[in-house]
Amino acid sequence: MIKATSRQRGIINAVISADGYINGNDLAKINQISAKTVQREIKDINDFLQSYNCEIISKRSHGYKIKYDNYDDYKMLKSIVGEIDCNCVYTLEENRVEWLIRKLAFLYVDSETESIKQDELCDELFISLSTLKNDLKVVKSILHNYDLKLSRKGNSGVYISGDEAKFRYFLSDYIVHKIGQEKSGTILEMIDIKSSESIKSIIIDVINKYDLNITDLGFDNLFNHIVITITRIKNDKIINEEKVKHIPEDEIEYEASLNLCRQICKLTEIEFPTAEVVYIYQHLKSQNRLFKDDNYSIDEEDSNNLKTIRKSLKEIYLQIGIDFTHDEILENGLLVHLKSVLHRIQYKMKIRNNLLDQIKKNYVLAYELANFLAKAIEEDMNVEVDENEVGFLALHFGGALERMNIKGRKDRLRVIVICASGMGTSILLRSKLSNRFGSKIQICGVYPSYKLEELDFKDIDLIISTINLQYKNLPIINVSPILSDTDMNKINHFISKGNENYKLDIKSYFKDEIFSSNLNKDNYLDVVEYMSNKMYELGYIDEVMKNSFMEREKLSSTEIGNMVAIPHAIVGEVKKPGIYVAILEEPIKWVYSEVQLVMMIAINKDVFLEHENLFLDIYNQVDEMYKVEKIINKKDLNYIKKLY
Question: Domain PRD spans what residues (predicted)?
Answer without folding.
Answer: 190-294, 300-407
